[in-house]
Amino acid sequence: MRIISGFLKGRKFIPPASKWPTRPTTDFSREGLFNILQNRLDFEEIEALDLFGGAGSHSFEMISRGCNKVTYVDKHRPCLQFVAQTAEDWGITEKINIVFADVAGFIKSSTHKYHYIFAGPPYPLPWLDKIPDMIFEINLLKTEGLFVMEHNPNHDFSGHPRFAEMRTYGKTYFSFFE
């Protein structure tokens, strides 16, 4: 895995993922997504939330592009330890808030609002289809904010009232909600 753009561009990180319950977003699909985000977000002015953060690639890419406030949420302790160590090694610990929590519990208890929310849940997650409703019912997204959820072709959010568009990169789908 590598950082695609920004002040950390080209840095590689290899999580010890052989025994992790994660599915990192490929560099190809992450690059496509960030090409879109680059035209929609002012990274230096936003607060971002990375749900199901895994190896941290989305959080690190946000920070590399100028985001100074990223909240990373995951419940797998080795992932959190890896992200914390990588953030320390790269000198960016002040830009990332690492939260050990179950995502559903975090969403239900959060009172903070974010400009940008990314969710990359495990594809077989039984409640994956409920995530957009949870985000909007709790009102986690700021006005004019953007929520992007990664999923596979088995899920279709085009009927959701806040759905805006979908982009595909192979079998990786990104649904955009506003």
Q: Quote the average pLDDT.
A: 93
Give the domain tally. 1
Give me the count of strands: 7
Low-confidence stretches: none
Task: Specify the helix fraction band.
Answer: 25-40%
- The neighbouring-strand order within the major sheet is 3-2-1-4-5-7-6
Briefly, what CATH class?
Alpha Beta
Structural class: alpha/beta
Largest sheet: 7 strands, mixed
Question: Strand share of the residues?
Answer: 25-35%
Rg from C-alpha positions? Answer: 15 Å
**CATH superfamily heading:** Vaccinia Virus protein VP39
- CATH topology descriptor: Rossmann fold
CATH architecture: 3-Layer(aba) Sandwich
Task: Count up the helices.
Answer: 5
- Shape descriptor reads globular
Order of helices and strands: HEHEHEHEHEEE
Distance between the termini: 29 Å
